[in-house]
Design a protein that fits this description.
The protein is of the alpha+beta class. It contains eleven helices and 27 strands.
Length: 519
C-alpha cells in the first residue's frame, strides 16, 4: 500500500567522543519496500487461510520475490483488543427523510461501535462535523442528530422542488394532443425537453461525482490509524414521465409512418424522432460500471473498508403527469461492489440497528505482500496471481504511483464547472433581497449570457403556501441581485424558500429563512 523508505543513513566516524576526528565519511543507503494489500474472492465471497506460496507478484511483467507476508483480520465491533488504539470512524449520510430508525441507529453506533478515544467524522451532504475524541465532546450525539434533521429536510425540499420543475416543464397531456395531430416539431421539442430534464436530474441526484471520491481518499491517506467508513444511503423513488404502452405504440407508429412515407423530408423527421427516443431509453439505464473500477482502486490505496446501509423511501404523490419508478437496483449493485472490494459489506435494510449489527461482525481479511523492486526509481505496474481455481485477487495495480495527489493537482489546474450559489437571503421591512452568484455564462453573438431560474415560495406558520412564483432571468455577469417587496404580508411567522437553477449547468441551490412580522 505504501513505499517504506529509509534515506540517508549517515555514518560519522568520530573517535574519543570528538577529541580525535578525521574527515567525515558519508554513505547513503536507499531501501524501498513496497507493501501491496490484496483481497481474494471466490464467487464474490472473501477467502481466508491462503498461504504465501499461493501468491505470485510481478512488476512490469517481471516476477518479484515476496520478502514479507502477513494476513490482517479485523472487525468493527468492539473487543478487549480493540479498546486500546484509537480508530478513525467516518459516517456518511445521504438522507431525504429523517426517521426514528435513523435516531435509533445513531444510538446504536454510540453505544456499541464507538469508544471514547475514537475520532469521528460525519458528512451530511455539504456539511460535516468532526470530533477528535468522542468521550471528550459532550453533546456529540445531539449535534449529529440536529445536523441530519436539518440536512434531510433541505435535501428533500430540493428534490421535491426539482420534481415540481419537471412537472412544469413537461406536459404529457399536451404531448398526447400533439402526437394525435402528428405534429413533428412539437413532438420533437417535447422529447428533447424531457431528455434534457432527465439528464440534469440524473447528473444532480444519481451519478457519483468522481471528484468527491478522490478528495475523500486523499483525506483518508493522511490518517495513520485504523479506518472504517459507514455510508447511509437513502434511495428515493425517481420521477418518470408516464408513457403507457398505448402512447409508446402511437409514437412508434408515427415514426414508422414517417420512415415509410418515401418522402426525403418525412424520412429525415422519422430518423430524428427515433434517435431521440433511443437516447431516452439509453439514458434511463444508470450504468455505473465505468466508475466502480476507478473508485475501488482509489480505496485500495487507503485501506478503508466501506460499509453501506441501503435504505428505501418514496417521495409521495405527484400530479397525473408523473409517476415514480424505482431504478435503485443499479445503485444498489454499485454500492454492493464498492463494499465488497474494500472489505466492507452492503446491507439493504431500513432496520438500521440490524444492519449495523451485521456490519460490526463482518470480518475484513487482507493479505499484505511486500517486495523490494529491482529498480526503486522506476514505478511499474503490479500484477498479483493467486493459484486456485476461480480465485480472484483484488488490488491496486499502480500502487507505487501517487495518482490520487496527481489527480487532485491536475484538476486544480483545469477549469472547473461553476456552481450556482445563493450568497445572501434577507427579509427586512417586508422586502426580500436575494444575491445569486457562481452560475455559468454562455457565449452568444451579443457576448456572455447566463440563464437562471428563480422560484420563491412563502409559507405561513401552518405550512400553507401564500406565495409561489418563479421566473427565468438573463444575466451578462455571473451575479444577480433581486429585491421584491411584500407589503401585503400580515403579522405572523413565515418560512421563505428560494430555489435557484442554473440552466446552463443544471446545478441547483436552495436557501430558506424564517421571519416574524410583528406589525
Amino acid at each position: 500500500m505504501r513505499d517504506i523508505k529509509s534515506f540517508g543513513i549517515v555514518l560519522l566516524l568520530a573517535l574519543c567522543f570528538g577529541i580525535y576526528s578525521q574527515e567525515p565519511v558519508t554513505e547513503q543507503v536507499k531501501v524501498v519496500n513496497v507493501e501491496v494489500p490484496v483481497r481474494v474472492f471466490y464467487k464474490n465471497q472473501p477467502v481466508d487461510n491462503i498461504t504465501v506460496d499461493k501468491f505470485k507478484l510481478y512488476e512490469n511483467k517481471k516476477k518479484q520475490e515476496i520478502t514479507s507476508f502477513k494476513v490482517v483480520r479485523k472487525k468493527m465491533q468492539l473487543t478487549a483488543d480493540s479498546l486500546q488504539e484509537p480508530r478513525y470512524i467516518v459516517l456518511i449520510f445521504r438522507l431525504y427523510n429523517y426517521s426514528p430508525e435513523i435516531s435509533e441507529g445513531l444510538d446504536y453506533i454510540f453505544a456499541n461501535l464507538l469508544k471514547e478515544n475514537d475520532r469521528l467524522l460525519v458528512f451530511a451532504d455539504n456539511r460535516s462535523l468532526s470530533f477528535e475524541k468522542i468521550g471528550g465532546k459532550a453533546g456529540a450525539l445531539k449535534k449529529i442528530n440536529t445536523l441530519l434533521q436539518e440536512q434531510s429536510k433541505y435535501a428533500r425540499g430540493n428534490l421535491l422542488s426539482y420534481i415540481k420543475r419537471i412537472e412544469s416543464q413537461v406536459s404529457m397531456r399536451q404531448f398526447k394532443r400533439d402526437l394525435q395531430r402528428a405534429e413533428f416539431m412539437k413532438t420533437k421539442e417535447f422529447l428533447k425537453k424531457y431528455l434534457r430534464e432527465w439528464k440534469a436530474y440524473k447528473t444532480q441526484y444519481l451519478m457519483p461525482d468522481i471528484n468527491n471520491y478522490y478528495n475523500f481518499a486523499h483525506h483518508l491517506e493522511g490518517i495513520k490509524m485504523e479506518k472504517w467508513v459507514i455510508n447511509f444511503y437513502q434511495m428515493e423513488m425517481i420521477p418518470d414521465i408516464i408513457m403507457s404502452n398505448d402512447i409508446r405504440s402511437q409514437l412508434n407508429r408515427f415514426i414508422g409512418n414517417l420512415l415509410e412515407s418515401g418522402a426525403g423530408e418525412q424520412i429525415s423527421y422519422g430518423n430524428v424522432l427515433r434517435t431521440i427516443l433511443n437516447e431516452i431509453d439509453k439514458e434511463f439505464t444508470i450504468n455505473l460500471d465505468n466508475n466502480i473500477e476507478e473508485i475501488s482502486k482509489i480505496f485500495y490505496k487507503v485501506d478503508a473498508p466501506i460499509h453501506n446501509v441501503f435504505m428505501r423511501m418514496t417521495v409521495g404523490e405527484s400530479s397525473l403527469d408523473l409517476k415514480f419508478r424505482n431504478i435503485s437496483k443499479d445503485i444498489e449493485i454499485y454500492l454492493r461492489e464498492l463494499s465488497r472490494v474494500t472489505g466492507g459489506c452492503m446491507v439493504p435494510s431500513n432496520d438500521i440497528n440490524a444492519a449495523l449489527e451485521e456490519i460490526s461482525g463482518k470480518e475484513n481479511i487482507c493479505y499484505f505482500l511486500t517486495y523490494a523492486p529491482l529498480d526503486p526509481e522506476k514505478v511499474g505496474k503490479i500484477k498479483v496471481k493467486v493459484s486456485g481455481r476461480k480465485l480472484k485477487a483484488v488490488y491496486d495495480d499502480n500502487i507505487r504511483a501517487d495518482y490520487i495527489k496527481d489527480y487532485i493537482s491536475k484538476r486544480g489546474k483545469a477549469p472547473q464547472t461553476p456552481t450556482v450559489k445563493i450568497n445572501e437571503l434577507t427579509f427586512k421591512k417586508k422586502e426580500l433581497s436575494v444575491k445569486i452568484a457562481g452560475f455559468a455564462l454562455g457565449k452568444t453573438a451579443k457576448g456572455s449570457l447566463g440563464r437562471v431560474g428563480v422560484q420563491i415560495t412563502i409559507k405561513d406558520k401552518k405550512g400553507v403556501k401564500i406565495f409561489d412564483k418563479g421566473k427565468i432571468l438573463s444575466a451578462k455577469q455571473d451575479s444577480i441581485s433581486i429585491s421584491i417587496p411584500f407589503p401585503g404580508l400580515k403579522k405572523g411567522k413565515y418560512e421563505i424558500i428560494v430555489d435557484v437553477k442554473d440552466f446552463l449547468t443544471g446545478k441547483l441551490a436552495r436557501k430558506n429563512i424564517e421571519e416574524i412580522i410583528k406589525k
